[in-house]
Every structure is written in C-alpha cells, then in structure tokens.
Amino acid sequence: MRLVLASNNAGKLGELQQLFAPLGVALIRQSELGVGEAEEPFCTFVENALAKARHAAKLTGLPAIADDAGLCVQAFGGLPGVATAYYATQFGYEKGDANNVRALLEQMAGIEDRRAALVSTLVALRSPEDPEPLIAVGRAVGQITREPIGDNGFGFDPVMWLPQFGKTFAQLPALEKNAHSHRGQAARAMLALIRERWL
Asked: Where does the chain bind Mg(2+) (predicted)?
C-alpha cells in the first residue's frame, strides 16, 4: 500500500517509515509528488492533521496520512501546542529546532513546574471525502530540562526529560525512542487501525 505523507519534514518521514515498514506500507513524502504545504489554521492537532491529510489526498489521488505534533507545556496552559514549529519566531528568532529550544528555555527560566508532554496526532484518509478518518494519538510525558542534553533526534528531544529512563529523548537510540515517543505511540495505534479497517 502506498500512502502519501502530508509533511515535508525529513525527521517525521524517517521515523514513520521505520514504524510502518512491518505493515508493508510505503510512505511517499508529498513534496516528491509536487504537493506543497497545506494551511493549518486550527488550534487543535486533530483539525490540522485532518486538513493536511485532505489536502494531500486531494492533490495526489492517493490515501494520505498526516501528523500534527507539538509540545504542550503545563505552565503555559498547554502551549505552544499547534504553534510548536514556529515557537521561536514569537520571540524574534528564526524558525528552527535550535532556536525553538533556546526560546523555550529562556521563557521557562525561573519556572519550577517543568511538566510537559509531546503529543502526536495521526490522521489517515482513503480519499479527501473519506467520512471515517482513522485517528490515533500518542502522548509522551516528561519534564523540560534546564539545558539541552543529548545529540539524537530533532525538535525538543534534547530538553524533553523522561523520568522512567533518566534521560532525554535526544539521549536514546532511535529504536528505543521510537518505542516510547509520542509519534511511536500514535504510529502503533494507527497501524492497528489500518490493519483492522483498511486491509
């Protein structure tokens, strides 16, 4: 089965390709099919993922899968949430992972409540008009460190401390990270849904 991935993020593609390989699902990044980014005007992960999947399915004629993910910080009432990718731009920095981490640590200076969750919502559609989208959510709970630790992963991995491991996501090998990450949890749930409903 071929699925178009409604994202141009190489990190997401790599992680999801590994996770979907056992099902024999080939993920094709939308940019390889000439599809640009969709508008993401909504304030929830599920609405944005649905919009992205519909956009990719409509323009390619293929079943599509989209991920909308982000960091939800307890002390900020769940923000940055859907604005995670652009978090640094609110504080005058260029868009990018390193600047996002820098801005987050600056904004959390002096805050004792470091609880946070990385959340991933996957939506899969057979067609743009599919009335029954498959929806899977994964949530990795931890704490924001006071400085980056580790060299693996991307995004907020260097500052997402996982108490059960005593490490950040950026300190975990890829296979271990995928087994416990928000995206890994959502992908496993999505695989089960695809097996049950589509195959």
From this structure: 39, 68
